[in-house]
């Protein structure tokens, strides 16, 4: 039986690398992004060339109706959902000191990164619970968090808080869904070379050159996609609620 995966924020960067990896592994793909289908036609075409079916859903996970529509369209097209990768996320429009950060910026980032994640997961989990298990499992959910879940950046506090929330969502849903045959994992990317880090490239180049990262290079979106591939495989059937740091060893504390 061909499995189906939903990947949010799948039109570029980390999300596109994950989508491409899953398509290469034979998954039907529900590709979720905020842009129009026409805008992302090139990305869709590249995925379809891998020989799998791609359903494009233009949606904003911060929106209640859009979240429900993602699930409805996925089930209508493919009958079931086997994998959810919560990758979509936003950074603050402007980096601001913790003492001047606005409530509007906080609400925007939390609304997508944390609330959107929480309630899309809720909707997908309720769908998965009603499905017949495959190889003893009804589904797998992978949250793309960040090293910022545990690393302080006082000029983008709302982002750090949002990702710390995703880490707790991983714990909560892993606890609640394990008896239902659904596993939940988290990946914490470090400094990954994407559009989101483009404005701070020089800063991180200097940190890498200074030896702050034991593996002295930028992370690539494919590094995250490879970790997703492992977590959704049948090789980790006795683990849930864990996280993987994909950060070049940045999490290592040194003296």
Any overview of this molecule?
The structure is a single chain. The chain has 255 residues and is of the alpha/beta class. The protein has a single domain, classed as NAD(P)-binding Rossmann-like Domain (Rossmann fold, 3-Layer(aba) Sandwich), CATH 3.40.50.720. The chain contains seven helices and seven strands. Helix 4 links the parallel strand 4 and strand 5.
Give a brief description.
The protein has 255 residues and is an alpha/beta fold.
Helix content estimate: 40-55%
How many individual helices? 7
The CATH topology, please? Answer: Rossmann fold
In N-to-C order, the SSE pattern is EHEHEHEHEHEHHE
Kindly report the average pLDDT value. Answer: 96
End-to-end gap: 51 Å
Counted up, domains total 1
Strand residue content = 5-15%
**Quaternary arrangement of the chains shown?**
single chain
State the CATH superfamily name.
Answer: NAD(P)-binding Rossmann-like Domain
**Anisotropy-based shape:** globular
Unreliable parts: none
Strand order of the largest sheet: 3-2-1-4-5-6-7
Secondary structure category: alpha/beta
Largest sheet: 7 strands, parallel
Name given to the CATH architecture: 3-Layer(aba) Sandwich
The top level CATH class name = Alpha Beta
Q: Round the Cα radius of gyration to an integer and report it.
A: 18 Å
Secondary structure: number of strands:
7
């Amino acid at each position: 039986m061909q499995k189906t995966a939903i990947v949010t924020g799948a039109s570029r960067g980390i999300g596109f690398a994950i989508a491409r990896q899953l398509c290469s592994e034979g998954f039907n793909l529900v590709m979720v992004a905020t842009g129009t289908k026409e805008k992302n036609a090139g990305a869709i075409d590249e995925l379809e060339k891998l020989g799998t079916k791609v359903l494009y859903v233009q949606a904003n996970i911060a929106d209640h109706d859009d979240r429900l529509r993602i699930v409805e369209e996925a089930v209508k097209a493919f009958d079931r959902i086997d994998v959810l990768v919560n990758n979509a996320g936003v950074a603050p429009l402007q980096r601001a000191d913790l003492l001047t950060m606005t409530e509007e910026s906080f609400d925007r980032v939390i609304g997508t990164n944390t609330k959107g994640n929480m309630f899309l997961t809720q909707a997908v989990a309720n769908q998965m619970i009603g499905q017949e298990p495959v190889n003893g499992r009804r589904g797998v959910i992978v949250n793309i968090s960040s090293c910022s879940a545990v690393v302080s950046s006082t000029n983008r506090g709302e982002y750090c808080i949002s990702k710390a929330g995703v880490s707790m969502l991983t714990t909560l849903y892993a606890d609640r869904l394990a008896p239902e045959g659904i596993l939940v994992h988290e990946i914490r990317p470090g400094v990954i070379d994407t559009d989101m880090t483009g404005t701070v490239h020089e800063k991180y180049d200097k940190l890498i050159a200074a030896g702050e990262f034991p593996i002295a290079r930028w992370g690539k979106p494919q590094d995250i996609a490879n970790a997703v591939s492992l977590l959704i495989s049948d090789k980790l059937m006795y683990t849930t609620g864990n996280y993987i740091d994909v950060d070049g060893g940045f999490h290592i504390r040194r003296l």
